[in-house]
Amino acid sequence: MMACGSVNLPPGFCFSPTDEELVLHFLCSKASLPCHPNIIPELDLSLLDPWELNGKALSSGNQHYFFTKVKENRSTENGYWKEIGVMEPIVSSSEKVGIKKYLVFNLGEAPQGTETSWVMQEYHICSSGFNTTTASNCASTRGRRKTDQCGSKWVLCKAYEKKSCQSQQGVNCYSDEDDCGTELSWLDEFYMSLDDDLEEVMSLPS
């Protein structure tokens, strides 16, 4: 466990937490106890282009995890992260505990940038959905923290590059998997798969 800096995972170890685990066990702990040791490092998003994350963020496969402070301006030296207008609720025990935003990295200056294959999921704590029971899951052993102490100063980011491949029809596509063969762009496929996820979340009791 380290408070800052890069972390190399040992051979055979795969860091693959769920959205719920990222919010409750990592992000809320960071928000309530910012000096508590954490395997996920702090990075300034404006100082790094996505291809520079390897070796600085906590990397597992092609996914790079890091904490950063909430910013309206997500510009870097060579481009900017653009929200695509999709937010997913993160639910734990039928309660909304956070939200996940999707962003795509664009080269150049806004709004004339060129879209790349780099995607980022940005996790936010939903304080309105926290009660004392839920908040206790991310509190330290010293005792429970009040809901407003799990604030929104920090966000947890997961960035990754969609793999480019060539379909049988000669059309470029992007995928998280090694194989492809569809004429849809990775963003089209993302929106289609998102519909099923949202239906499942919306079906949960309020």
From TrEMBL:
Q: Which gene encodes it?
A: LOC100779578
The keyword Hydrolase is annotated on this UniProt entry:
no
Record organism: Glycine max
Q: Note whether Transcription occurs among the keywords.
A: yes
NAC domain location, by residue? 9-162
Which PROSITE patterns does the protein's record reference? NAC
PANTHER family associated with the record? NAC TRANSCRIPTION FACTOR 56, NAC TRANSCRIPTION FACTOR-LIKE PROTEIN
Q: Which Pfam families match?
A: NAM
Query: What Gene Ontology terms describe what this protein does at the molecular function level?
Result: DNA binding
What does the UniProt keyword field contain? Answer: DNA-binding, Nucleus, Transcription, Transcription regulation
Q: What is this protein called?
A: NAC domain-containing protein
Q: Name one GO biological process term.
A: system development
